[in-house]
Structure formats: structure tokens, C-alpha cells
Amino acid sequence: MRRIALICLASLTLLIEQSTAAEPPETSLWTDATGNLGGSEWVKDGVWKVVGVPKSNTLICSMTGLGLWSSDDGGATWKRMGAEGSRPPNLGQAVQFVFDPQDSKRFWASGMYKFAVWRTDDGSATFQQLGTQSHVDGIGVDFTDPERKTLLIGLHEQPRSLQKSTDGGKTWVKIGDKLPEKSNFSTDPIVLDAKTYLTSGAGWKQGLPWGIYRTEDGGDNWAKVSEFGASGNPFIASDGAIYWAVLWDNALIKSADAGKTWTRLQGPVRGLPVELPGHRLVAVKGTQLYASSDGGTTWSAFGETIPFVPSGLAYSEGRKSIVAYRQNLKGPRVIVRWDLPADLESAFKVVLPGNLVAWDGEGINGGNGWANGGSVKAQSKEKHSGNNALEYRLASAEKFEGGWNWYSWAQVNLTDASEFKFLSFWIKFSGGAKPELRVALNCGPNKISSEYVPVLKYNPAALDGQWCEVRVPLPDLRGAKGDFDVKNVYELRLAASGAKDCSVFVDDIRFDNLEAPTRP
Q1: Least confident stretch, 35-44, 64-73, 139-148
Q2: Considering only CA atoms, which of 309, 156, 164, 289 is closest in space to residue 232?
Q3: What's the alpha-carbon Rg for the chain, to the nearest Å?
Q4: Same domain, 343 and 364
Q5: Poorest-pLDDT segment among 202-206, 224-228, 281-285, 460-464
Q6: Average pLDDT over residues 36-42
Q7: What's the burial of 273, exposed, middle or buried (CB within 10 Å: 0-12/13-18/19+)?
């Protein structure tokens, strides 16, 4: 459940469908960086995580069930890392990489489902396994010690699971039992020095509170320093600030004092950032990139939108490229790359019109539906693209109202559509008599509905039995009251009257700034 995400837990946050990827449309800035990744051995689940090796051109990709792969040419070509008999196995997947700040050829990788813990000192020519634990999430290393003797690992989805090594990983002792008895999964440790550690404490375990815990005596005593449910790999910026994502909604929290206190950052982004030159942070919301030059206090949209909703970002320091990737998919353009211009500042000046995808039947394919007078469900019989469309079924009642929450009933990862002009979706009608059909949006966290507007006003052919696009200006949905929160949208609603025993199929729900439809 826990690590399929922008950082981890994407099965609960991004809800990426494990299926073959349809190739997204070409854009002018993003280049396919999937190359020959996986070769003929490519397995179903494919890419898990991509990271950039500091101070180099090298990208590393963790593949589910197929070990580690690297590319030195921006993803044009990939090769398997490590020599046969001296590399991580074709089991599970690596979920965290920790690079030595003094020598980027030395790094540690930890992973779950029998991936285990590995170290390389020569840039992956050879690896050595550290210890016998094989179901591991996070790893932390003490870089204040030149010999790198102190390490911490957290076991996958286990409370009080921390294990510690003081001999570089040869032997391990459990210290997680020193955490409070009622604490959640301690799977993602941070090592600040030989005695000072932090660990996450969040998970799906019912009845166990969330929090962040800190020790200054090597793990003998722990203090709860935050109620935030930090989860997944943390990110430590060049200025020492620590960024972590909150479980379920992926919102960013930050500590500027070595983890003693934490604040939740405001702004649109979700998931961990990457750091570009000049201490600039880059993160994503939907398909839109955002940058911050003040440590995450404020964010500005920039660049052309990514051609899919990414599971995460990486930065190639050597190539000065932003890399986006999708988890658990097979096919072309699972990884894409944007080579930033030499004049880096020019990349942050213009936001090109683009799309924010809420539902595409493939990469975004989660959520749930509700209905009065019928049903709403995802189905594969009638679809415009991807693998699934939504069916709003008008059954025995002549009046119908239903909605589809494209994330989940918990209203996490609410969509910020405030920078877009239009709601766009594709629609197809099947049945006899045509209903009077209206559309609205729901927003959270107080479930305020927008104004209902007639679908035929925006496309008179919408109920003619063929797939066609409907584009609704967002100001029309705000209505006279103007209390619809367009920054927190989560649901497409339809209401119908005057007909029964018919279906309305909906696919490719998007927000965009395009003045006219361009997609066939």
C-alpha cells in the first residue's frame, strides 16, 4: 500500500494504474527519455523511481523486478548496473538512494520485497549487500563521520522498526523498540550525526498516532517533535532545510532547525521537490511545474506542462535537465526530460498554455462515484482514450444526479484549477430520448458545488451519439455567489432530467488555457 507515489504511497495518492501506457502527445520541450530501458527483459510494472546522480550526467532508474539501470546520455540509452553476481537482484525495487556528498560514485540503495540494502563505492561497477534485512524502505547515513560507520534503516510498513549499524552495515541492532509503544510506521530515517536521528511515524495502521520523532542520544530516547504524518523519503536541501511529504495528501512540510520544529508549506505543489542551481526548488502539481526561490514560501508556475501526471521528478545536474517519470507503466515516454536553457532564468519567465489532467482513463484512473437515480462507474466498453471511461447511467428514475471524485472519497490531492480558463471533457450519449443534461464541479474541503450549467450550451452536438468535446469557461461555473473554491476541485457532477434508460459516457477530464479545442 505504501510506496506507490510521488514520493511513496502512490497507490493511495496518485492512484496510477498499472497498465501499458498509451503514448502521450508530443510537446516542444519534453523529450522521451525511456530509450531502451529494461531491454527485452522489461517486466509489467516497469519504472519505480528515477534519480539524478549529483555532479554528473548519470540518471539511475529503479525498476520493479528488474534491478537498477543507468543512463549517461539523458535517457537515450540505458544499461543494467553492476556486474553479474555482484548487484542487487531482480526482486522488489529500490525506494531510496543516498549519495555520499564527498564522492557521488559512492551511494547506498535500500528497497523492499527482497531488494535489501546495498552499497557501491565505484559508481555501481560492484555492489555489496549490507546485512540480511530484505524488506526495507528508507536508509540514513552519518556523513559527519569520514568512515560512514553509522547507518539507520526502517523496515517496510512496520511500527518501531528502526535498525542501526555502527560498523558500516556489517551488523545491525534494533532500536525501534525505543520509540513510543503507540507509534506508526518508522520506515524513513534521517541521520544528522552519530547521535542525532529523525524518523517518520505515519501509516495506515489503525489506532496508532502519526508524528515525527527525534533523538539526540543515538536512539535511546525519542521525542515527538511534530504531529505531522511524514511519509516517504525526505529531501535535504543544500542549505540544510529538510522537506518531507505528508501521508495521504502529499503536502510539503519543512524544518529549518535540524528537525526540531516543522511547518506546513502553503502553495499548490504536492510531493518532494528537486533542487536546481541558486537554491531554487522545483516541484509539481498535476502536470504543471512550480518553482520557489524562497525555500517553499511562495511558488510560481513555469514551463510547458509535462505530457502526463508524473509520479515524481529528478534533476540531472550534469545535463541541467528536469526529468519526470510515471510508475508502474510499460511503454514509450514513461520517462521524459526537459533540457533547460543555458540562460536558466529564462526558463522561469513564461508559463505556456497547457493541461491539468483530472481523469484520462489510464494514468489517472482512481476515485469513486455516487448517484441518485442511477449509477456512476468506471468501465472499458465505451471509452474515448486510455483504458476506461466513466459511465453515468440514468436508470429507472427520470431525474438523475451523480458525481465522480477523481482521487478518492477522502478528498486528498485536491486539484488547483485556479490558473486555468476552461473545464474540458469528452462526452458520448447512448440511449433513446435525450435528457436535459447539466454539469457542475465539486470542491473541498466543505463540498461546495459550483453552478450547474447546460452541457448543450457549450456543444450542441454533445448528445448526438458520438464522442465530442465540451469546453466550459470556469467563470460560468463560479456563478453569482462566487463561493466555488476553484483551487480545491475534486469531482465532476452531472444532473439530468426528462429521460431514462440511457447512459452518458465521460472521458479525458482536463483543465486548460486553450482558446479552442485541439485534440481529436
Answers
A1: 35-44
A2: 156
A3: 24
A4: no
A5: 202-206
A6: 86
A7: buried
> Cα–Cα distances in Å, from 279 out to 43, 112, 276, 295, 515?
37, 32, 6, 8, 36
Peptide bond between residue 445 and the one before it cis (omega within 30 degrees of 0): yes
Closest CA to 184 of 2, 411, 5: 2
- Which residue range(s) make up the domain with 313? 19-352
CATH of the domain at 375: 2.60.120.260
Which of residues 352, 377, 396 is at a domain's end? 352
Is 68 in the same domain as 213? yes
**Domain's final residue, options 317, 337, 352:** 352
Q: Is residue 6 part of a domain?
A: no
Closest C-alpha to 164, from 197, 203, 121, 135 = 197
Joined grid coordinates for residue 380: 472499458
Can you give the pLDDT at residue 503? 95
Q: What is the pLDDT of residues 308-350, one digit of tens each?
A: 889 999 999 999 999 999 987 777 889 999 999 988 888 887 5
Query: Domain holding 280: CATH number?
Result: 2.130.10.10
Residues whose CB is less than 8 angstroms from the CB of residue 258 and which lie 6 or more positions away in sequence, other chains included: 192, 196, 240, 242
Q: Are residues 285 and 379 in the same domain?
A: no
- Beta strand 230-236 with 400-405: parallel, antiparallel or unpaired? unpaired
319 and 400 assigned to the same domain: no
Residue 517 pLDDT grade (very low, low, confident, very high; cuts 50, 70, 90): low
Identify the pLDDT of residue 287: 84
Are residues 343 and 434 part of one domain?
A: no
Is residue 81 within 8 Å of residue 87, measured between CB atoms?
Answer: yes
pTM for the full model? 0.70
| 3-state SS, residue 297 | coil
Same domain, 248 and 310: yes
Element (H, E) at 68: strand 68-71
